[in-house]
């Protein structure tokens, strides 16, 4: 078991009251999905007081660069690119002073060498379950595949993390795994998180 405490990102937030409630928990990142085909889509960051220690992440899927820059101006600390965005875009956005998280859908035949072109232009990778709908599936992938990951770049784990399996992530003995991305399996409805379930998961993840 890895002793260090992992970061927690809660993604798909859009409701002001729910955001306010979530802001009282010990999370590290809060994600806002700027992808219109998502059931968790929002076109802005709601005007809610979010503590400075919680970093705001904008999630995009093959969005126009100009749109991403506009959303960064809302006060984003990081951008998560969940489509087929090239390393050049990652570099441009990183030069704006935000952290860049590049997501990839993982499966048993995933070509890990495809990540090499990105490693100098991102801060983190995010490994999600491979899906045509770009995340939020509620499905896990075989975490044993992560043993094949060859690069030093730190990563977040996503895809079907739930109250039932979040404790199992503690057994992934990989120092590069810096955080967990929680979303659909902690929801009452799309974009509305179950605060009690999240709080219980945080106690496990944060070793409280």
UniProtKB/TrEMBL annotation:
UniProt KW Transit peptide keyword: no
Organism superkingdom: Bacteria
Domain N-(5'phosphoribosyl) anthranilate isomerase (PRAI): 8-201
Broadest EC class assigned to this enzyme: isomerase
InterPro entries: Aldolase_TIM (IPR013785), PRAI_dom (IPR001240), RibuloseP-bd_barrel (IPR011060), TrpF_fam (IPR044643)
Metabolic or biological pathway: Amino-acid biosynthesis; L-tryptophan biosynthesis; L-tryptophan from chorismate: step 3/5
Molecular functions (GO terms): phosphoribosylanthranilate isomerase activity
Enzyme Commission identifier(s): 5.3.1.24
Keyword vocabulary terms for this entry: Amino-acid biosynthesis, Aromatic amino acid biosynthesis, Isomerase, Tryptophan biosynthesis
Stated family: Belongs to the TrpF family.
PANTHER family: N-(5'-PHOSPHORIBOSYL)ANTHRANILATE ISOMERASE
Protein name: N-(5'-phosphoribosyl)anthranilate isomerase
